[in-house]
Amino acid sequence: MIIGSLEDCSRRGTTDFSNNSQPRSDFMRAFVLHGPKDMRLETIPDPKPGPDEVKIRIKRVGICGSDMHYYQHFGIGSFIPKEPFALGHEFSGEVVEHGSLVETVKLGDRVTVEPGLFCGKCRYCKAGRYNLCSAMRFYGSASCYPHLHGGFAEYVIAPARNCFHVPDGMSYGEGALIEPLAVGMHAVIRAGSLGGKVGLVTGGGTIGQTVVLSALAMGIDRIYVSDIAPFAREFSVAHGATDAFDPTSPSFADDIKAAAPDGFDAVFEASGSPRALSQAFELAGRGAVVVQIGTQPAEVTLPANVVMSKELTVYGSFRYAHVFPQIITLATQKRMEIAPMITQVFPFEEMQKAMDVSIAKDGVIKVQVEYT
Known about the structure:
six-stranded parallel sheet; Quinone Oxidoreductase, Chain A, domain 1
């Protein structure tokens, strides 16, 4: 989910072709969001990299829950677009141009991009918690102005420091999965040591599935999933979850009791449902950890007496920091099997169909769009 402070997102730097550029046109194609359910294929100015930036030809982009929300409502909470912009923050691609100061990547490199452009100067960045940067800029988001066009375009400019190499043997599709996987891994890290513990994930969508994979990679003993959708439950069990439950089933309470008689050691709320968040506190065992990942639609009541009497530790988990390299390593070592999360792929020209399928949520975990 894209959330951040409303800050000036003005481009910095000047065009620098040096000897490190390839021939380029002045325009590119992009699917631009103009209003609720009004996404148009247009020609917009082709971006130019500054001295410490790279130009990336997008190869794959994933459709996130925040993209769907912007598409349907033309806003998320207080983040209301002030002008049309291109969505998309889960992307990978090929470096086709870079500025004169760039040394960490070269032409032709395959990269995935961490989409949060942090300032590096505020107290949060200096403390290493750059996901909380007070001047954060984010691709495909109205959280800053001017808005930064995201990966629903043919090219994107990114700071070299935000680019991570996609290893040989990893596809562009898997490279575009690193961003949502980072959300799950950050939440798991927030929960602390999980070795020998029993966990529950409420919400089996994309982020819930990344929590399952991350928790397993970090040594959890058993991990369960709660979701109302049969496909999400089946997918969870097929890809590592110990079992999955339907929270609307009459047997839900008995199923939970059998799985964790004393409650769960860690509960990850990944659905954004107020009822699921309430259940998280109910189902957490004494001394457990509750991690909230899903964005709630409104203010919710915190069961303070339950937190007190169970001595629960409650964490928020917002985006991620310092986890892209870890996930790439785990995926490369096959300690995280990430490719199955990609359940459908559409060509660039069918971006609208890809969005519709994502919103329908019928038998999909992650929908991606491929650029050829």
